[in-house]
Amino acid sequence: MKHLLAAAFCLVAAPALASDDDIIKVQASGDVATTMDRLEEAVTGAGATVFARVDHAAGAASVDMVLDDEQLLIFGNPKLGTPAMQDDALAGLYLPLRVLVYKDGEGQVWLAYEDPEEMLDELSIPDDAEYVKMMTGALAKLTSAAAGN
């Protein structure tokens, strides 16, 4: 019975999970902290607001658990996010934007974020919304700068 419930949950939850195609990964040089520092500098240098920097590994350590280095930056620009939320208030579930910087099992550091077009695809957002194109371009530029390659 437990397996049946688990399978049913997976079928129901599957549409809400991001597929690998929806996640953009950028290989970085340097460690997680340095890469995140570069990302935060690029974000603030571009005039966006940093709302939070979450250190998942520190959170795990606070409860005596171990997690590889992993930090999340939450940031945005009201000039881009507000029009999205005006078109569909549910865009507020996805905004502000987020970039995860993490170290994989082989020790490689990555920046990862969800493709804005895919992220907002199920909402009442026009397919040709200029702000989605601008979010996509900004994320590519910011993560490239942070990657240090």
Automatic annotation (TrEMBL):
Q: Which UniProt keywords apply?
A: Signal
Coiled coil ranges (UniProt) are: none
Cite the DUF302 domain residue spans from the record: 54-116
User: Could you name the domain of life of the organism this protein comes from?
Assistant: Bacteria
Q: Where are the transmembrane segments?
A: none
From the UniProt annotation, give the residues forming the signal peptide: 1-18
**The protein, known as:** Uncharacterized conserved protein, DUF302 family
- The organism named in the record is Primorskyibacter flagellatus
